[in-house]
Amino acid sequence: MAILFQLALAALVLLSLVMVIGVPVA
Fold first, then answer.
1. pTM
2. Helix (H) or strand (E) holding 23
3. With the C-alpha atoms ordered 13, 19, 20, 25, is the resulting torsion angle positive or negative?
């Protein structure tokens, strides 16, 4: 259960980073 939570948290962080980096480029 904790592993799934960590994976979901990491996915959200990566997604937020992609959005923050991708928006100015686009």
1. 0.60
2. helix 2-25
3. positive
* Identity at 10, one-letter amino acid code: A
24 alpha carbon, distance to own chain's centre? 17
With the CA atoms of 16, 17, 21 and 23 taken in that order, what torsion angle do they form, in degrees rounded to the nearest 10?
Answer: -10
**1-26 confidence digits (pLDDT tens):** 799 999 999 999 999 999 998 887 76
- The Cα–Cα gap between 9 and 24 comes to 24
Domain ranges of the chain: 1-26
**Rounded Cα–Cα distance for residues 2 and 25 (Å):** 35
